[in-house]
Amino acid sequence: MNKILYLLFFVFCIGCGQAKTEKHQRHNRIVDVREKVKEIVIEDVFIRSNNRLYLAGDYLIITDSQSMDEVMHLFDKDNFRYITGFGKRGQGPGEIASMGICVFDEVQQKLYVTDHGKNCIYSYDLGSALANPQYMPETKIKTNNSQFPADYQYYNDTLCIARIIDMDMATSRFQTSVAKWNMLTGEITPMKYRHPEIERKNSCVASSLEHGIYVEYYFSHDLMSIFTFDGELKYNIYGENWTTRSAGKKYYDKVIFCKDRIIAAYMGASPSENYTTKLHVFDITGDYIQTLETGYVIVDFCYDEDNNRILMSLNAMMQFAYLDLDGLI
């Protein structure tokens, strides 16, 4: 009898552990915010549709990887006044051949820009770039074609949380992983956890030093996972379209942190959708709160903490816009 009770207790404990980490959720609380989306009017520079948004201190940076001139455009993030363009596109010294991501070092006031064409990351001193139109960036670190950080959040030179691409040069197939990356030495330390039901994953990462967690979100699976900075799994959050098979479409497109909220651009409502107008809102433990329906196709977005608003690039009559979050989330 005691053995049976012990076995039942053991099974119950396992079930409790799974319930704590495995979360299955429906995304069915829709808030229409279309009328709250306000246009950002940009008149002094032409920016193509395939752009990306970044914040750097007091500035909003919009990158245009297809530009034949400057690939980065600097704006005042408070009033969206255009300031200058910089980062010449090209193959010459200090020019950018194939634009990657931008990250900002707040302490050193440096902007780090990935150039996939030259396999390097450039370092721009923002003050010097603003003062001198002929300013040339320095090379921060060299990368390589077979294993490199495609995306990362920078905290200091020895701690970045990165999405690593491992490329098979013979077949051009790749795998992604999350790792700690040391920008000084180039050392990559992969996180140990791997979801047991996903064979070939394609995922990305967002992180928060304040909360000590990172989110790994999947493009081809309806799954978002939350980890400690040491790579320990806290929660797997499964959407209603979860399956172990890799879908031929995107589910999550981008995830960001907004104070004590996680906001995710989500495409998984219909198998035919290759775009999103929706932003899912979760708390820090991954529990679903609500969905913001913007009514506009979202190309990219970022969070302006000082003004508590989301800045967006759109595929619409309004190319750029913002959404004030006061009283909303």
Key words describing this protein structure:
single chain, 329 residues, mainly beta, Neuraminidase, 5-stranded mixed beta sheet, 2 helices, 26 strands, globular, disordered N terminus
Q: How many E strands?
A: 26
Secondary structure: helix percent? under 10%
CATH superfamily label of the domain at 144-293: TolB, C-terminal domain
Average of pLDDT: 91
* Percent strand: over 45%
Regions with pLDDT < 50 over 5+ consecutive residues?
3-18
Global outline: globular
Instruction: Specify Rg, calculated over alpha carbons.
Output: 21 Å
Could you spell the SSE succession in H and E letters?
A: HEEEEEEEEEEHEEEEEEEEEEEEEEEE
Specify the CATH architecture of the domain at 144-293. 6 Propeller
Taking strands numbered 1, 2, ... along the chain, how are they ordered across the largest sheet?
Answer: 1-19-18-17-16
In short:
The protein is built from two helices and 26 strands. It is mostly beta strands. It has a domain at 144-293: Neuraminidase.
Could you walk me through the main structural features you see in this protein, from its secondary elements to its overall organization?
With 329 residues, this protein is mainly beta. The chain has a domain of 150 residues: 6 Propeller (Neuraminidase), CATH 2.120.10.30. The chain is 8% helix and 48% strand. The protein has 2 helices and 26 strands. The strands form 6 sheets. The chain has a 5-stranded mixed sheet. The protein has a 5-stranded mixed sheet with strand order 2-23-22-21-20, with no helix packed on it. It has a 4-stranded antiparallel sheet with strand order 3-26-25-24, with no helix packed on it. β18 and β19 form a beta hairpin. The radius of gyration is 21 Å and the shape is globular.
